[in-house]
Specification:
The protein is α+β, with helices and mostly antiparallel strands. The protein is 44% helix and 17% strand. The protein is built from 13 helices and ten strands. It has a five-stranded mixed beta sheet, with helices on both faces. Strands 1-2-3 form a three-stranded antiparallel beta sheet, with no helix packed on it. Strands 4-5 form a two-stranded antiparallel sheet. Helix 7 runs antiparallel to helix 10. The radius of gyration is 29 Å and the shape is globular.
């Protein structure tokens, strides 16, 4: 009799079977003080057996995706304290973000960051580099201080852009850039076939010391700003029009002709502008040694400029970051968590074509 009553109670308390699109499983509802929990549905395999369903988005015992962890750690990296993180993300995570959660997320991101900085680059099929620096404000010794983040983007053989290095430095001196380049070489980065730079003197000297002979393109946007800085504002529109006609000409021959016309005109009208253009030499036109389909992506460091703009947009409410290290780490984390995506460069189909060994004619 007692066995019958026990069996009856068991039948009453048996959890319901829930049918889903991926299988069937039992679920215990939240009642009588018990936490709601469901068994993973069983899946039918081709051989007639069953197997337990497993999530590909979350590993075993993982409660949040990697993107969610990056969001928590990113808020902390940007200088938000744990109390503010908990309040800001309470609605998203059901109030489950506390000090320990932030600390664990931070440790995971810090571990991934250290591994990323030490990884070998021997297997990276890099053919081109884009190098530029940006300035951010961080807190050093309790004072807001401007530092430089030196960024190196690589372009693979298939045209995909990839972040190779980002380091916080006091400026863009030769020594600072040598530290970045020496680290890339130490990690077995292959010698690049083409370089795109912002025109900073320190970077030019550092490149000459480690990769002498590699074709270098000086950013045409940076030079445009230099030209305007050498003239009164009333001449800016005319300078910009002449410069654009030259840089964006359709053929190499047209670029050479318009450069000569630019030099002759501005030597008479405002010599400082002509001198500034001549200072750049043939490096301002190295892109003409490539197939025309690549000119748009090879003329400028805009790929890094766009990352800078997106990075600064993300941290605009945090006018001063907590430290130099977290500034570089936050920049990397936004890319590592796919919050910022990079597409292939224009003209990637012809990247295998080597630059011709014929600089532009500089005769004026």
């Amino acid at each position: 009799m007692r066995n019958r009553r026990t069996a009856k109670r068991r039948r009453r308390s048996a959890p319901p079977v829930i049918a889903t699109a991926i299988g069937r499983g039992r679920c215990w509802e939240a009642s009588a003080g018990w936490r709601s929990r469901c068994r993973a549905p069983a899946l039918n395999t081709p051989d007639g057996k069953t197997t337990e369903w497993k999530s590909k988005a979350l590993r075993a015992y993982q409660r949040r995706t990697l993107v969610a962890d990056a969001l928590i750690a990113g808020a902390y990296l940007a200088g938000t304290n744990t109390r503010r993180v908990r309040r800001a993300l309470a609605a998203l995570f059901g109030g489950a973000v506390g000090k320990d959660t932030v600390s664990r997320g931070w440790r995971r991101v810090k571990s991934d960051w250290d591994a990323w900085n030490a990884r070998s680059l021997a297997e990276e099929p890099i053919v081109r580099l884009i190098l530029d620096g940006t300035v951010v404000r961080v807190r050093l010794d309790r004072k807001a201080t401007s530092i430089s983040l030196l960024v190196v983007l690589g372009i693979r053989e298939d045209g995909q852009k990839v972040l190779l290095a980002i380091k916080s430095m006091g400026g863009e001196s030769t020594e600072a850039w040598r530290t970045v380049l020496d680290d890339l070489i130490k990690r077995s980065l292959r010698r690049p076939e083409f370089l795109i730079v912002d025109g900073a003197p320190g970077l030019d000297k550092a490149i000459a010391a480690v990769w002498d002979g590699v074709p270098v393109q000086r950013c045409t946007v940076h030079k445009h700003r230099n030209l305007l800085a050498h003239a009164p504002e009333r001449l800016h529109e005319e300078i910009a029009a002449d410069y654009s006609d030259m840089i964006y000409a359709a053929t190499r021959q047209e670029i050479e002709a318009r450069r000569k016309a630019f030099i002759r005109k501005w030597r008479l009208k405002h010599r400082a502008v002509a001198d500034s253009l001549e200072e750049a030499g043939d490096r301002l036109f190295t892109f003409t040694r490539l197939p025309p389909s690549q000119w748009r992506s090879a003329r400028t460091t805009n790929a890094i400029e766009r990352l800078h703009e997106e990075f600064k947009r993300r941290i605009k409410t945090q006018t001063v970051l907590p430290s130099a290290d977290t500034a570089a780490m936050l920049f990397w984390a936004l890319l590592a968590s796919d919050q910022i995506n990079m597409r292939k460069v224009d003209g990637w189909q012809t990247l295998a074509t080597k630059p011709i060994d014929q600089p532009i004619d500089l005769a004026a």
